[in-house]
């Protein structure tokens, strides 16, 4: 694990910071610190334009291999880029799912033809992706997936029927990678396949889900005889579970350091308010602020340890604690923000009664311990896969 940076690294840090300072201006100025979790509904078209701006500067897919259109930056430089991006107030990435999940998975498991077809649009910031994993009865446990796909030999297409839920930015996406059951009668991890499905078809319905915050960046997605070409399967039929697990490994990649810098920005805002309104003189609140600061440092060091392993989608055992740790920490930060604000946390200034950033943080962070795998599921993963403890009994019902 590397926790310090060389002189060359620091020169690269200044390069990133200078580019962000020079380019996150003008039409993009309004995007500073916008579009993160709980705010993803804001400025979607402007953030897509920002993706193209990043691509022009060579700042998309910086860790991808050059043969896939990336810059092949070292892990250290990727960490620096993500930290400086967030420090400068870079907006939530519309291309995150493509760059961080779909792209690395296609690069690792796709054919040369699939790589040539799908990766350039991600690099150029012109093709946007969403994730079709969770279902009403298969949220944290993908083994319960019911969405099915059948190969229509006559048309040379997969025909997909089912429902996905909690699909972030599905309404803004061009493609969705879908886990579907392609082997009739299969159960559990068997018989699943990883399909790439175009969203622009009448057989796909996207229905927004309104959150406590009043926003609807999440969606239900219904597939009613939706179609994708037979060639748009990653790996072989039945390889879906293996590929899905590798993708979740890519999700624990260097972008986690950018996420933590966003957390750092939120904590700094809370500390500034505490100093301004006197909440920092309350010994209990002061202790909670210190604990939040310490927790963020622990998160960073654990991430650096996690990133010191393989970058092929496989996970070190230490990586299994990451989701449980950050989601619990962030939910606590949301409550701390409300307690620091005091009575102001209960008030909105005037119509149309838009939530403040910290109010949105509090409400949205209630979901942190649920989406992406609930805390209960995360504890089972740690116990069973990392510690080798006996598996939890499964109901036969």
From TrEMBL:
Cofactor(s) demanded: FAD
Domain Acyl-CoA dehydrogenase/oxidase N-terminal as annotated: residue spans: 6-125
Family to which this protein belongs: Belongs to the acyl-CoA dehydrogenase family.
GO MF terms, alphabetically ordered: flavin adenine dinucleotide binding; oxidoreductase activity, acting on the CH-CH group of donors
GO cellular component terms, A-Z: plasma membrane
Record-linked InterPro entries: Acyl-CoA_Oxase/DH_mid-dom (IPR006091), Acyl-CoA_Oxase/DH_mid-dom_sf (IPR046373), AcylCo_DH-like_C (IPR036250), AcylCo_DH/oxidase_C (IPR009075), AcylCoA_DH/ox_N (IPR013786), AcylCoA_DH/ox_N_sf (IPR037069), AcylCoA_DH/oxidase_NM_dom_sf (IPR009100), Mycobact_Acyl-CoA_DH (IPR052161)
Protein name: Acyl-CoA dehydrogenase
UniProt-listed SUPFAM superfamilies: Acyl-CoA dehydrogenase C-terminal domain-like (SSF47203), Acyl-CoA dehydrogenase NM domain-like (SSF56645)
Span of domain Acyl-CoA dehydrogenase/oxidase C-terminal: 238-386
Ranges for domain Acyl-CoA oxidase/dehydrogenase middle: 130-225
UniProtKB keywords: FAD, Flavoprotein, Oxidoreductase
């Amino acid at each position: 694990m590397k926790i310090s940076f060389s002189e060359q690294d620091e020169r690269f840090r200044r390069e990133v910071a200078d580019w962000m300072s020079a380019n996150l201006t003008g039409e993009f100025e309004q995007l500073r610190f916008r579009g993160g979790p709980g705010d993803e509904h804001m400025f979607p078209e402007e953030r897509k334009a920002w993706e193209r701006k990043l691509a022009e500067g060579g700042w998309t897919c910086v860790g991808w291999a050059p043969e896939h259109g990336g810059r092949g930056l070292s892990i250290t430089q990727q960490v620096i880029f993500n930290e400086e991006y967030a420090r400068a107030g870079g907006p939530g990435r519309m291309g995150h799912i493509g760059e961080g999940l779909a792209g690395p998975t296609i690069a690792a498991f796709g054919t040369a033809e699939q790589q040539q077809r799908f990766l350039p649009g991600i690099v150029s910031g012109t093709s946007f992706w969403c994730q079709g994993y969770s279902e009403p009865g298969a949220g944290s446990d993908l083994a319960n997936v019911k969405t099915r796909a059948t190969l229509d030999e006559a048309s040379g297409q997969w025909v997909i029927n089912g429902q996905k839920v909690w699909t972030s930015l599905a309404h803004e996406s061009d493609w969705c990678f879908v886990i579907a059951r392609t082997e009739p009668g299969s159960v559990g991890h068997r018989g699943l396949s990883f399909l790439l499905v175009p969203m622009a078809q009448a057989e796909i319905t996207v229905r927004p889900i309104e959150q406590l915050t009043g926003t609807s960046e999440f969606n239900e997605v219904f597939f009613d005889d939706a179609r994708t070409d037979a060639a748009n399967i990653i790996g072989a039929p039945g390889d879906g579970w293996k590929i899905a697990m590798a993708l979740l490994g890519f999700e624990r990649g260097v972008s986690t350091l950018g996420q933590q810098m966003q957390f750092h920005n939120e904590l700094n805002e809370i500390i500034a308010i505490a100093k301004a309104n006197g909440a920092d003189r309350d010994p209990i609140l002061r202790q909670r602020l210190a604990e939040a600061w310490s927790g963020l440092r622990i998160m960073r060091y654990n991430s650096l340890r996690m990133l010191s392993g393989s970058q092929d989608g496989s996970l070190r055992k230490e990586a299994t604690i990451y989701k449980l740790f950050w989601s619990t920490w962030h939910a606590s930060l949301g409550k701390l923000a409300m307690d620091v604000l005091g009575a102001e946390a209960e008030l909105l200034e005037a119509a149309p009664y838009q939530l403040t950033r910290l109010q949105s943080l509090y409400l949205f962070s209630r979901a942190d311990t649920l989406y992406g795998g609930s805390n209960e599921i995360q504890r089972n993963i740690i116990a069973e896969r990392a510690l080798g403890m006996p598996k939890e009994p499964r109901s036969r019902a």
